[in-house]
Amino acid sequence: MCAVAPSTTPMTPVFSSPKLPSLLCKSSSSSSSSSSSPRSLSAPINLHVSASPSPSSSSVSHLDTLLKRKRPSRIHLPQSMPSIGFGIFDTPEIMEEEGEGYSVFSKRGRRRISAMEDRFSVTLGIQADSRQAFFGVFDGHGGAKVAEIAAKRLSENVIDQVWRRTESEVEEAIKDGYLRTDREVSEEGVSGGGACCVTALIRNGNLAVSNVGDCRAVLSRKGRAEALTSDHMAGREDERNRIEKSGGYVDFCGGGWRVQGTLAVSRAIGDEHLKQWVISEPETRVMKIEDDCHFLILASDGLWDKVTNQEAVDMVEAVCGVEIAKKKPINPKLIMSACKQLVTLSTSRGSLDDTTVMIIKLN
């Protein structure tokens, strides 16, 4: 059974609630190689210089003047400079949330001059049952707007669909919840940007994990890492075939495979301009929570680009494995410490991306 916190209300949603004062903006350009469009480069300057073996001093002087004229002066960008064109928003560098049986920590990537695009949501006490809950991590690209909407709407839409269906129809219900959220993003007129998602629904002793994009869910079975999701990347053979059959193409540019030469992920919520090929239908895995299922890690690619599945599980086990293995509540601050250490590990290995890590005790 899942050791998630009982709720004083029938259903208590929590949305990426910041606990630090805000210094930065909220929406920005895309955050990672899996979500950003390649930056177009201007053509290099061609300088036609005479082939004379001994150029005159006046020619050298003229060339120096040209080079200096073409090279702009260095511009200093303050760390908290807002994103031009998006306005000033109130998302801080760090967001975190603790609850009995789970913790989540988000940190803004170092490459940004705007605010982080990651979001998360937690809904506890579904139908007044503390053992039923919904968790989600959302990684925005091309701005935070879609991730913001998904964090607020996806849990409601999935829960609504699931409780209308039988136990055998859970996968279809979750899919309908994702597709409905995608339609709501479009109805709100959000034409640019998108969000990758990974969610976990705990219900009746079962775990249903779903994803679109490159956010990932990793389960610890007595310390052994087991990936419950598969990243939807443009270079994945089945995804590339699906895109090409629908009239699109996948091109290698900007250091990786990209849909229509722009987006590295092949599934996401939003991305209206690519919707014919970048679909919002999730892949879902449903399993029974056994005694050997210790904890679940949901995280954005800011973690998984630098930390392997097993390394992530090993770190959590090292910090709080003994307590997690016990069938009783655990101090959420201990789980929070593991979240922060995973983010720190990713950063120390060179990650410049926004990173969100959520750890959920299962047994």
UniProtKB/TrEMBL annotation:
> Which residue intervals are annotated with compositional bias (Low complexity) in the record?
16-42, 49-61
**Record's keyword annotation contains Transcription regulation:** no
Q: Which family does it belong to?
A: Belongs to the PP2C family.
Question: What Gene Ontology molecular-function terms does this entry list?
Answer: metal ion binding; protein serine/threonine phosphatase activity
List UniProt keywords, sorted A-Z: Hydrolase, Magnesium, Manganese, Metal-binding, Protein phosphatase
**What range(s) does the PPM-type phosphatase domain occupy?**
101-362
Protein's organism: Cucumis sativus
- What are its E.C. numbers? 3.1.3.16
Cofactor(s) listed: Mn(2+); Mg(2+)
Asked if the keyword Ribosomal protein belongs to this entry, the reply reads no
Q: Where is this region: Disordered?
A: 1-63
Q: Per its UniProt record, what Pfam families does this chain match?
A: PP2C
The name of this protein is protein-serine/threonine phosphatase
